[in-house]
TrEMBL record, chain A:
<keyword id="KW-0067">ATP-binding</keyword>
<feature type="binding site">
    <location>
        <position position="105"/>
    </location>
    <ligand>
        <name>Mg(2+) 1</name>
    </ligand>
</feature>
<keyword id="KW-0436">Ligase</keyword>
<feature type="binding site">
    <location>
        <position position="129"/>
    </location>
    <ligand>
        <name>Mg(2+) 2</name>
    </ligand>
</feature>
<dbReference type="InterPro" id="IPR036676">
    <property type="entry name" value="PurM-like_C_sf"/>
</dbReference>
<comment type="subunit">
    <text>Monomer. Part of the FGAM synthase complex composed of 1 PurL, 1 PurQ and 2 PurS subunits.</text>
</comment>
<feature type="binding site">
    <location>
        <position position="553"/>
    </location>
    <ligand>
        <name>substrate</name>
    </ligand>
</feature>
TrEMBL record, chain B:
<comment type="function">
    <text>Part of the phosphoribosylformylglycinamidine synthase complex involved in the purines biosynthetic pathway. Catalyzes the ATP-dependent conversion of formylglycinamide ribonucleotide (FGAR) and glutamine to yield formylglycinamidine ribonucleotide (FGAM) and glutamate. The FGAM synthase complex is composed of three subunits. PurQ produces an ammonia molecule by converting glutamine to glutamate. PurL transfers the ammonia molecule to FGAR to form FGAM in an ATP-dependent manner.</text>
</comment>
<dbReference type="GO" id="GO:0005524">
    <property type="term" value="F:ATP binding"/>
</dbReference>
<dbReference type="GO" id="GO:0006189">
    <property type="term" value="P:'de novo' IMP biosynthetic process"/>
</dbReference>
<dbReference type="InterPro" id="IPR036604">
    <property type="entry name" value="PurS-like_sf"/>
</dbReference>
<comment type="similarity">
    <text>Belongs to the PurS family.</text>
</comment>
<protein>
    <recommendedName>
        <fullName>Phosphoribosylformylglycinamidine synthase subunit PurS</fullName>
        <ecNumber>6.3.5.3</ecNumber>
    </recommendedName>
</protein>
<dbReference type="GO" id="GO:0004642">
    <property type="term" value="F:phosphoribosylformylglycinamidine synthase activity"/>
</dbReference>
TrEMBL record, chain C:
<dbReference type="GO" id="GO:0006189">
    <property type="term" value="P:'de novo' IMP biosynthetic process"/>
</dbReference>
<dbReference type="GO" id="GO:0005737">
    <property type="term" value="C:cytoplasm"/>
</dbReference>
<dbReference type="GO" id="GO:0004642">
    <property type="term" value="F:phosphoribosylformylglycinamidine synthase activity"/>
</dbReference>
<keyword id="KW-0378">Hydrolase</keyword>
<dbReference type="GO" id="GO:0005524">
    <property type="term" value="F:ATP binding"/>
</dbReference>
<feature type="active site">
    <location>
        <position position="198"/>
    </location>
</feature>
<dbReference type="InterPro" id="IPR029062">
    <property type="entry name" value="Class_I_gatase-like"/>
</dbReference>
Length: 752, 87, 226
C-alpha cells in the first residue's frame, strides 16, 4: 500500500503548490488566503482542519460578533458579574460566598436529524460547559420549539427530543426545572432545541479555560475519541493525504450520560483537591478548540502528541482526531507533581485519562503525529482572530405590510357564549395547554433542592441548606412578537423572563441568551438579528441585568423560509430565603385577586389572534421597562413580607390563561369582575406587558394596597379565589373539571 | 408458517455505551479475554403464508423504516424454519 | 447514641447525597460507602439509593449487583442487617435475589416523574414502623423501569405473608402487578420500593410534604432501642 508522506509543517513548506480542499471544509477563498498569510506558507492538512472548524460560524461567531459587542459596550454597572462574556459560561455572585454560572445553548440541527440523540447530546454539552467553570451542575431547563402540533413530523421529533432530554438529564441526576414548549409551523423543518444549565460553586472555586505555567501537563480525560462529527475532516483524509479509504464516519453522535455522570464526579473531586490549573470541555471542534482555546488564553504555548489520544477507532487520521466531536471528553491542565493524584481520581471513577501534552514557554501551539510536527500555529489566530463579517442588513420589504395588518381589527366575540368558547379554545390550544405530558418525563426532584419547577413561573433551587439561599431561573421567548418587531420582541422576551423570576419572589440578577435566527446571508434575517441584539442590549442596560454570555444559532431555515426570529432569554435571580417563594397555585379560598399594571387593547402577535384567527400581524405589546422594574420590586417585596400567597405573570394568553392555570394548579376556582373602563374581551385576552395577578390574604389587603399606592403601581381588584368554577361575572362560568379536561387533554391526544 | 428474524445493531462506527459498560464489567466477574461487546435487538416476526421474495421485501421495508433507525443502526434479516413439536 | 446508616455510592448513583441528607434530617448519622470496598464500615443499616448505576445498561441494577460492596451486604442482610433499596436500589436487590420479582420498563414506555399516592400495607418492617397500616402517603416517583412483575405463585406468597409493603393508590404509574410499589423479605429487614421517600423529608422542597421521613425515623428508633 502506498501512502503519501505525512503532511508535516516541513512538508507543507516544501510543497507550496499542493491544493487543499478548503472549500469543502467550509472556508471562503479569502479566508483560506488569510490562513496562508498568517502562517507564511500553506497550512498542513491538520492546520487546515483546525482553522476551518474554528473559523466556522458556529465556533467563531463571525457574522454575529459585530452586533454582540453591544452586550459588553452597553453592559450595566453590576456588582454581580464575576466572569463575563467569552468564557465557557458567565459567573454571577449570588451572595454568601456563592457564585452561580448559567448558560443556554442550541442543538437545533442535530435534533432534527436524530431527535433523541440530538437533544441528549445538547444537554451533555451545556452541562460540560458548566463543569468547566468549576461548578457543580444543579439544574437544567429546556426551551423547545416544534412545528405545528398536528403535523405528522412533530410526532417524530417531539417525543424523541423529550425522551432524549429526559434520558440524558435524568441519568445525570439533574432536576429539570423549567423551559418552554412552543408550536409554530415556522419550526416545522427546523425545531429549536435549546438547553440551559445552572451550576453553583464557591467564589474561590471558579476555574477558567487557560493553560499557564510551562511544564504543566495537558490531560485528556473521559470517553475515547471516535470519528464523530467529522464529515469535513474525512474529506481531507480521503481525498488529499491518504489513499487508504477511511472507515465510515458516523453521521450522528450518541451520548453516554453514564460516562458524563462519572466525568462530573471525577472533575469535581479534582477541583476539591485543587489539582486543576485550567480546564476546557470538548464540544464543537473537539481537540482543535480545546487546545487552541487553552493555549491562547494562557501565558505560554502548548505541545501536544496526538498519538497519545485514546481512540475508539484506530483508523482515524490526525486531522480527524483534531476535529472529532466525540462527546463526554474534557481537557485539564495540571501541575506535574499533581498529575499522579489527578490520574488516581480518574481511575477511581473508571474514567480514562491520558497526558497528551504540556504547556511550553513559547507562544506556539505545536502538535505532533508519528514524530512529525503537523501543527505549528499561534493559537490566538485559530481561537480568537478568526474572520469578522459586517454582513449587509436591511429591513425587509414586507415588514411594513405585516405591521399594518392590525390584529386589533380582527373580529371579536360578540356574545358571552362566544367569549366562553374562545376561552376554552385558548386554554386547550397546543401552545397554552398543559405540558405535563412532557415535563413528567423529566426528573424534578433529584438532588433534593427543588423548590419550584415547571409549570411555575420560574424554576427555583435551594443552594444552601443552612441559610435557605436560593436561585431562580426563567427562560422566555416569543418568535411571533419578534417577527412583528425584532427590537421590541427581544425586549419582551427579556421582560417576561425578568418578570417570571420576580413573580416567584427572586431578584433578577443577570441574563444569558440563545439567539435562534435564519441565514445571516439574507439581509432581512441579518436585520432581524441586529435589531434583536440592539433591543436586548438596550433593555439589559436599562434593567441593570448584564448579559453574562450566550449562544447564537444561525441558518435555522428550510430552503428560503427562515424561522421566526427567536431570541430566547434566560434570567437568573436570587432569593435570600426560599421559604418566601411565591407559587402560581391559588392557596386559599377567600383570598383577593389583584391585577397589577395597565391593560390596553393589545392583540398583535397574541395567542388569541393565533388560536381564534390564525393571524400574525400588527405590533407586539408596548414595552415599558421602568414599569417592569417597579412591578418586580413590588412582587419581590410582597413575597418577602408575606403579603401575597400566589402570583402569576401575564403573558401569552393574557389574564384568563393565568387565572385558569392558578386555579387548576391550586384546585380552587375564582370569581372575576370585569373592572370599570375595560370590556370583558380586552380584560381576558389582552397581552399588555408589565402585569401580574396576585392573591392577597384579606389580612394583608390594606398593607398591600398602601405599598402599591405609595410606589405608584396601578392595582385593580378583580375578584376572589372561590368555588370550583372560573366565573367571569355577567359573562360565563366554566367548571374547573371542564377546564382541566380541555387544558390537560390536548397534548396527550396529539401525541398518542 | 415461518419465522423471520431481524437483528438490529448499532452501526460499527456509532458509540455503544451499553456494550461498553457490559464489557468493562466482565473482568470483575472473572470473564477474561473478551475485547469488545456490542448490544443489539432481535425481533422475531411470525409470518403467515410463504416467506417468498415479496414477503422478504416487505419485511426489508418494515425493518428499514420502523424496526431500525437507519441513521444509527444496521439490520440483518434471516429466515428461521419453525420446528413445530420439537421440545 | 444515634444510629449509623450507610449509603452506597455506585458509579451512576444519583440520590446518594439526598439520602444522606434524609438520614441526617431524621437524626441519624449517614456513612458513605463505596461500591469498590468490601467493607460496610460497621454500619447499623444500609440504604441502596436511586440513580442509574452503570447507566442502567444491560438491565437496571444488573451490573451493580456484582460490585465488591455487595458481598458483605448480601451476607449481613441475610443475617438481619436492615437494608432499604430505593428505586435503582430496589432493582439491585431484586437482581441480587434478596427480594423476589423484578422490574420491567414502565408499561407506557416513558420515564415518569410524579407525586405518587401510596398505601402502607405493612407497618411492621424495619423501615415502616412509624407509619400506621393502611396509611395513605404521597411520595415522589421517578423511573423508567418501574413495572414490578413476579410469577403468580410468588405474588400470592407475598400477599399471604404480608410482604407487599406498599401499593400504588388511585393510579398505577407503571403497570406494576397488583399495584405493588414495594416489598419486603420474609424477616422484614430488607425492604425495596420504587418511589423516593428521601425526596419527601422537608416541607419546602420537592412536593412540599414530609411523608417520606418516617422511613428514616422508623429505622432510627429500631436501631436506638435495640
Amino acid at each position: 500500500m502506498s501512502r503519501t508522506p505525512l503532511d508535516t509543517v516541513e512538508h507543507a513548506a516544501a510543497t507550496p503548490d499542493v491544493e487543499l480542499p478548503w472549500a469543502e471544509l467550509g472556508l471562503k477563498k479569502d479566508e483560506y488566503e488569510r490562513v496562508v498569510e498568517i502562517l507564511g506558507r500553506r497550512p498542513t492538512g491538520a492546520e487546515l482542519a483546525m482553522y476551518s472548524v474554528m473559523w466556522s460560524e458556529h465556533c467563531s461567531y463571525k457574522s454575529s460578533k459585530v452586533h454582540l459587542r453591544q452586550f459588553g459596550e452597553k453592559a450595566p454597572e453590576s456588582d454581580a458579574m464575576l466572569v463575563g462574556i467569552g468564557e465557557n459560561a458567565g459567573v454571577v455572585d449570588v451572595g454568601q460566598g456563592y457564585a452561580v454560572t448559567f448558560k443556554v445553548e442550541s442543538h437545533n440541527h442535530p435534533s432534527y436529524v436524530e431527535p433523541y440523540q440530538g437533544a441528549a447530546t445538547g444537554v451533555g454539552g451545556i452541562v460540560r460547559d458548566i463543569i468547566a467553570m468549576g461548578a457543580r451542575p444543579v439544574a437544567v431547563v429546556d426551551p423547545l420549539r416544534f412545528g405545528a402540533a398536528d403535523h405528522p413530523d412533530t410526532k417524530r421529533v417531539l417525543p424523541g427530543v423529550v425522551a432524549g432530554i429526559g434520558g440524558y438529564g435524568n441519568c445525570l441526576g439533574l432536576p429539570n426545572i423549567g423551559g418552554e414548549v412552543v408550536f409554530d409551523a415556522c419550526y416545522q423543518g427546523n425545531p429549536l432545541v435549546n438547553a440551559g444549565a445552572i451550576g453553583v460553586m464557591r467564589h474561590e472555586d471558579i476555574h477558567l479555560a487557560k493553560a499557564s505555567g510551562a511544564g504543566n501537563k495537558v490531560i485528556l480525560y473521559g470517553a475515547r475519541t471516535g470519528g464523530d462529527g467529522i464529515g469535513g475532516a474525512s474529506i481531507l483524509a480521503s481525498e488529499t493525504f491518504d489513499d487508504a479509504k477511511p472507515s465510515k464516519r458516523p453521521a450522528v453522535q450518541v451520548g453516554d450520560p453514564f460516562q458524563e455522570k462519572l466525568l462530573i464526579e471525577c472533575t469535581l473531586e479534582a477541583f476539591r483537591e485543587k489539582l486543576v490549573v485550567g480546564i476546557q470541555d470538548l464540544g464543537a471542534a473537539g481537540l482543535s478548540c480545546a487546545t487552541s482555546e487553552l493555549a491562547s488564553n494562557g501565558s505560554g504555548g502548548m505541545r501536544v502528541t496526538l498519538d497519545d489520544v485514546p481512540l475508539r477507532d484506530s483508523t482515524l487520521s490526525p486531522e480527524e482526531i483534531l476535529m472529532s466531536e466525540s462527546q463526554e471528553r474534557m481537557c485539564a491542565v495540571v501541575e506535574p507533581e499533581k498529575v499522579d493524584r489527578f490520574l488516581e481520581i480518574c481511575d477511581k471513577w473508571d474514567v480514562i485519562a491520558t497526558v497528551i501534552g504540556e504547556v511550553t514557554d513559547g507562544d506556539r501551539l505545536e502538535i505532533y503525529w508519528h514524530g512529525g510536527k503537523i501543527v505549528d500555529v499561534d493559537p490566538r489566530t485559530v481561537a480568537h482572530e478568526g474572520p469578522v463579517y459586517e454582513r449587509p442588513y436591511a429591513r425587509p420589504s414586507w415588514q411594513d405590510e405585516l405591521q399594518a395588518d392590525d390584529a386589533n381589527k380582527l373580529p371579536r366575540p360578540e356574545t358571552s357564549e362566544e367569549l366562553k368558547d374562545q376561552v376554552l379554545k385558548l386554554v386547550g390550544s397546543p401552545n397554552q395547554a398543559s405540558k405535563s405530558w412532557i415535563t413528567s418525563q423529566y426528573d424534578h426532584f433529584v438532588q433534593g433542592n427543588t423548590v419550584l419547577a415547571q409549570p411555575e413561573d420560574s424554576g427555583m433551587i435551594r443552594i444552601d441548606e443552612e441559610t435557605d439561599l436560593g436561585v431562580a431561573i426563567a427562560t422566555d421567548g416569543n418568535g411571533r412578537y419578534a417577527k412583528l418587531d425584532p427590537y421590541h420582541g427581544a425586549q419582551l422576551a427579556l421582560a417576561e423572563a425578568y418578570r417570571n423570576v420576580a413573580t416567584t419572589g427572586a431578584r433578577p440578577l443577570a441574563v444569558s441568551d440563545c439567539l435562534n435566527f435564519g441565514s445571516p446571508e439574507d439581509p432581512a434575517v441579518m436585520w432581524q438579528f441586529a435589531e434583536a441584539v440592539r433591543g436586548l442590549a438596550d433593555a439589559c442596560q436599562q434593567l441593570g441585568t448584564p448579559v453574562t454570555g450566550g449562544n447564537v444559532s444561525l441558518y435555522n431555515q428550510t430552503g428560503e423560509a427562515a424561522i421566526h426570529p427567536t431570541p430566547v432569554v434566560a434570567v437568573l435571580g436570587v432569593i435570600d430565603d426560599v421559604a418566601r417563594r411565591t407559587p402560581v397555585a391559588f392557596q386559599e379560598e377567600g383570598q383577593l385577586l389583584y391585577l397589577l399594571g395597565d391593560t390596553r387593547e393589545e392583540f398583535g402577535g397574541s395567542a388569541w389572534s393565533q388560536v381564534v384567527h390564525d393571524h400574525l400581524g400588527g405590533l407586539p405589546p408596548q414595552v415599558d421597562l421602568e414599569r417592569e422594574r417597579l412591578l418586580a420590586e413590588i412582587l419581590i417585596s410582597a413575597s418577602r413580607d408575606g403579603m401575597i400567597d400566589s402570583a402569576h405573570d401575564l403573558s401569552d394568553g393574557g389574564l384568563i390563561q393565568a387565572v385558569v392555570e392558578s386555579a387548576l394548579l391550586g384546585g380552587k376556582g375564582a370569581r372575576l369582575i370585569v373592572p370599570d373602563g375595560l370590556d370583558a374581551f380586552t380584560f381576558l385576552f389582552s397581552e399588555s406587558a408589565g402585569r401580574a395577578v396576585v392573591a392577597v390574604p384579606r389580612s394583608e389587603e390594606v398593607r398591600f394596597n398602601d405599598m402599591c399606592g405609595a410606589r405608584g403601581l396601578p392595582v385593580t381588584r378583580i375578584g376572589v379565589v372561590d368555588g370550583d368554577t372560573v366565573d367571569v361575572q355577567g359573562e360565563f362560568a366554566l367548571p374547573l373539571s371542564e377546564l382541566r379536561e380541555t387544558h390537560e387533554g390536548t397534548i396527550p391526544a396529539l401525541l398518542k | 408458517m415461518a419465522r423471520v428474524v431481524v437483528d438490529v445493531m448499532l452501526k460499527p462506527e456509532i458509540l455503544d455505551p451499553q456494550g461498553q459498560a457490559v464489557q468493562r464489567a466482565l473482568p470483575r466477574l472473572g470473564f477474561d479475554g473478551i475485547s469488545d461487546v456490542r448490544q443489539g435487538k432481535r425481533f422475531e416476526l411470525e409470518v403467515d403464508g410463504p416467506v417468498d421474495e415479496a414477503a422478504l421485501a416487505r419485511i426489508h421495508d418494515l425493518a428499514e423504516s420502523f424496526l431500525a433507525n437507519t441513521v444509527i443502526e444496521d439490520f440483518t434479516i434471516r429466515v428461521e424454519e419453525v420446528a413445530e413439536a420439537v421440545k | 447514641m444515634t444510629a449509623r446508616i450507610g449509603v452506597v455510592t455506585f458509579p451512576g448513583s444519583l440520590d446518594d447525597r439526598d439520602t444522606q441528607r434524609a438520614i441526617r434530617v431524621a437524626g441519624a448519622e449517614p456513612v458513605a460507602l463505596w461500591h469498590k470496598d468490601k467493607d460496610l464500615k460497621q454500619v447499623d443499616a444500609v440504604v441502596l439509593c436511586g440513580g442509574f448505576s452503570y447507566g442502567d445498561y444491560l438491565r437496571a441494577g444488573a451490573i451493580a449487583r456484582f460490585s465488591p460492596v455487595m458481598e458483605p451486604l448480601l451476607e449481613q442482610a441475610k443475617a438481619g442487617l436492615p437494608v432499604l433499596g430505593i428505586c435503582n436500589g430496589f432493582q439491585i436487590l431484586t437482581e441480587a435475589h434478596l427480594l423476589p420479582g423484578t422490574m420491567l420498563r414502565n408499561n407506557h414506555l416513558h420515564f415518569i416523574c410524579r407525586d405518587q399516592k401510596l398505601r402502607v400495607e405493612n407497618a411492621e418492617t424495619a423501615w415502616t414502623t412509624d407509619y400506621a397500616a393502611g396509611q395513605e402517603i404521597h411520595i415522589p416517583l421517578k423511573n423508567n423501569d418501574g413495572q414490578y412483575v413476579a410469577d403468580e405463585r410468588t405474588l400470592d406468597e407475598l400477599e399471604a405473608e404480608g410482604r407487599v409493603a406498599f401499593r400504588y393508590v388511585d393510579f398505577n404509574p407503571n403497570g406494576s402487578q397488583r399495584d405493588i410499589a414495594g416489598v419486603s423479605n420474609e424477616a422484614g429487614n430488607v425492604v425495596g420500593l420504587m418511589p423516593h421517600p428521601e425526596h419527601a423529608v422537608e416541607p419546602l422542597i420537592g412536593t412540599g410534604r414530609t411523608d417520606g421521613l418516617p422511613f428514616f425515623t422508623s429505622i432510627l428508633k429500631k436501631l436506638v432501642n435495640a
